[in-house]
Amino acid sequence: MSTESRYALPVEETEWKIPGAFESVFRWEYQDGRESLLRLYEKGKELQWNTNTRIDWSQDLDPENPQELPDEAISIYGSEVWNRMTRKEKAELRRHLQSWQLSQFLHGEQGALVCTAKIVQQVPSVDAKFYAATQVIDEARHVETYARLLHEKFELAYPITPTLKRLLNDVISDSRWDMTYLGMQILIEGLALAAFASIRDQARNPLAAAVNAYVMQDEARHVAFGRLALRDYYPQLSDQERDEREEFAVEACYLMRDRFLSEEVWERVGLPVEECVGWVEASETMRQFRTRLFSRIVPAIREIGLWGPKIRRAYANMGILGFADLDLDELSRNDERVARDFDARQRPPSASGE
Predict the structure, then answer these.
(1) CA-CA distances (angstroms) from residue 335 to 56, 153, 344?
(2) What is the arithmetic mean of pLDDT over 184-212?
(3) Among 11, 178, 239, 273, which has the minimal tally of Cβ within 10 Å of its Cβ?
């Protein structure tokens, strides 16, 4: 059954094709794998899961606040526009804003699915092909999971935003394998982890929280994959080649920061778009939220060796340079612990009452 009718805005095209050309690499040496990547591959195999059995889909969402998030998370909270709204209007706004954000997660996960399949073809080493193959099924599962949450529970979705579409187009169309890693594994996945965490840690609805906790458990491995591959490769590049990648990373970060203005939502629910955008851009709460979104990206960029003056200056201007010293491995271990805690809470009690 078509889900096109569930989109809050008209979908201009039901299929998006990106032209491009890149080399597909076969590798005949099967025993030269890096131990760190092979360990990640083993973990990727062991931690596969089925969205239909791990998640309790019988749980419902609150029609007035589907994920039961605090209103302070709404970007126009406290504004004159917000204060003028009725209870019914606020309930409608919550549903649309949450659907809009989850829709971008969904479209981004499909982008990750396409990118990782491309990595399997492009990357020159077999150990990376092995791990990327596990990520392909991870991304398919994430697309399935967010699609089910939106179409079955929200019964509402939004098209991809122009900024996310532009970034995906740049990443997918680039013929260089490392740019696919950089754009998807480091930048898009890194931003997604921080955004997922905001829902996982704040949502009082157990279904919404669990979906993001389980996806994060996978995504933490995906960012680690990008870090392991690129930190070995980037020291081999010339200064000019690294500068080019730093410039791409800076532009992508500004693009991702500015994609959270939600113009489509304000227009769809009948709010004054310019007034809402003005409030979002001036809001200290939103500034802090948009800053936190880069907490996983900055230390990864530093680790892979893209840490020249241009990128440090840009990150200082964005107010995110302080994230450089965060321990990504500890954050990943915490993501895994949180997912296991969700499993324990959802597991039915044993016959002994334990």
Answers:
(1) 20, 25, 15
(2) 94
(3) 239
